[in-house]
Design goal:
Layout lengths: L5 E3 L8 H7 L9 H18 L4 E6 L2 H10 L7 E6 L2 H12 L3 E6 L8 H10 L5 E7 L1 E2 L4 E2 L2 H11 L2 E5 L18 E5 L10 E6 L1 H9 L9 H8 L10 H17 L1 H21 L16 E4 L7 H12 L1 E5 L9 E4 L6 H15 L7 H10 L1
Parallel strand pairs: 1-12, 3-4, 3-5, 5-8, 8-9
Antiparallel strand pairs: 2-10, 6-7, 9-10, 11-13, 12-13
This protein binds pyridoxal-5'-phosphate (PLP).
């Protein structure tokens, strides 16, 4: 049995001691002045992370709740929606839109590949009557470890005129997302990924174009109604009782992230992704995403060597070394495993995970080769 746990999944990530301590505070009145000053700081911090001046809605919910809110506030039943689907979270976005009666045109791309821009261009230019009201897309698809080119997708969507709704739950802060410069209408994120806070809060940015769509959007909503959320946001409150402890943690995490600086945060995630990819390749393992240009900075899916079952390997490294890795999702279940390296996961933990795999795998590669390759990148 291992004494220590190395949580290396793509969220929730471990939580820094500063954030844990902040969350241990006594409750305060969520309709009082100290709470509203904390919410203000969080909203400004999220705007900083999103590189936007847009309104930010703070919701007590998980990332999926944030996704649902970004559908029901801007669309009506029967609206056509183009869903750009590169994995399990693309599937989820489409399912939510269907559940509320949208007419979803789901374009599925090969697993391990990014959204193909030509296909998007064809789909949008074929829509002469402008039936498509919104395009749904992930910045980072966590199930396949692929980073989409959101800037270019947004340019195509702007030419058409539909809304672009981005799920940045696992991508935010791991790679730049310039919400204002790229004209992203609605962007969703969650507290438990690169923000390094436990699950419980989602953040949704809304620009003017999205607010205009909100005026005519008829999908049913109550808890997630952004009109109510905005009314309360103006006085530094949320319509319903928020997850107060998570709010405390978020305030501290924003302070830590600001101390580090946006460019350093992006560089940290980029380096971690490069290091793990180099390490796994040196072990002779096959990555789902071969193309480094579209590789996620948050998570790396990798196939086990021939003859070894992915989930059995995960069990062994968890039990013997305390290294907790994620499994495959949906059609990739059992076929591969995923190493999370976003948020509060550090370089030495990454080396520890590689070392544990190296000890167990016996891929015929010299012991130390994976760790050495990762160290070269980290040095
Ligand atoms: C890209 C993406 N979208 C949405 C979600 C859903 O978030 P949650 O599990 O917090 O509901 C996740 C969670 O892993 C995710 O990675």
């Amino acid at each position: 049995m291992a004494f220590k746990e190395y949580l290396m999944i793509p969220g929730p990530t471990p939580v820094p001691a500063r954030v844990l301590t902040a969350m241990g505070r006594q409750m305060i009145n969520h309709r009082g002045p100290s709470f509203s000053s904390i919410i203000k700081e969080i909203v400004e911090g999220v705007q900083w992370a999103y590189q936007t001046k847009n309104d930010i809605i703070v919701l007590t919910t998980s990332g999926t709740g944030g996704m649902e809110s970004s559908i029901v506030n801007f669309l009506s039943p029967g609206d056509r929606v183009l869903s750009l689907n590169i994995g399990a979270f693309g599937n989820r976005f489409a399912k939510i839109a269907k559940a509320y009666g949208a007419d979803v045109d789901e374009v599925k791309f090969e697993r391990g590949k990014a959204v193909d821009l030509k296909t998007v261009e064809q789909k949008l230019s074929a829509d002469k009557d402008k039936k498509i009201k919104a395009v749904l897309v992930q910045q980072n698809e966590t199930s396949t470890g692929v980073l989409n080119d959101i800037k270019s997708i947004a340019e195509l969507v702007h030419k058409h005129g539909a809304l672009i709704i981005v799920d940045a739950v696992s991508g935010l802060l791991t790679a730049p997302l310039k919400v204002d410069e790229w004209g992203l209408d609605v962007v969703v994120s969650g507290s438990q990924k690169a923000f390094m806070v436990p699950p419980g809060l989602a953040f949704v940015s809304v620009n003017k174009k999205a607010w205009a769509a909100h005026e005519n959007a008829k999908m049913p909503r109550f808890y997630f109604d952004f009109k109510a959320a905005m009314k309360f946001a103006e006085i530094g409150e949320t319509p319903w009782t928020p997850a107060v402890s998570i709010v405390f943690g978020m305030q501290e995490a924003i302070r830590m992230l600001k101390e580090e600086g946006l460019d350093n945060i992006f560089a940290r995630h980029e380096k971690m992704a490069k290091a793990v990819r180099a390490g796994l390749r040196a072990l002779g393992l096959k990555l789902l995403v071969e193309d480094d240009k579209i590789a996620s900075r948050a998570v790396t899916p990798v196939f086990p060597p021939e003859g070894i079952e992915a989930d059995k390997l995960r069990k062994v490294v968890r039990e013997k070394y305390g290294v907790v890795l994620a499994g495959g999702q949906e059609d990739l279940k059992g076929k591969l495993f995923r190493i999370g390296h976003l948020g509060y996961i550090d370089k030495l933990e990454l080396l520890a995970a590689l070392a544990a795999l190296e000890i167990e795998l016996g891929t015929g590669v010299k012991k130390g080769a994976g760790v050495a390759a990762a160290e070269e990148v980290l040095a």
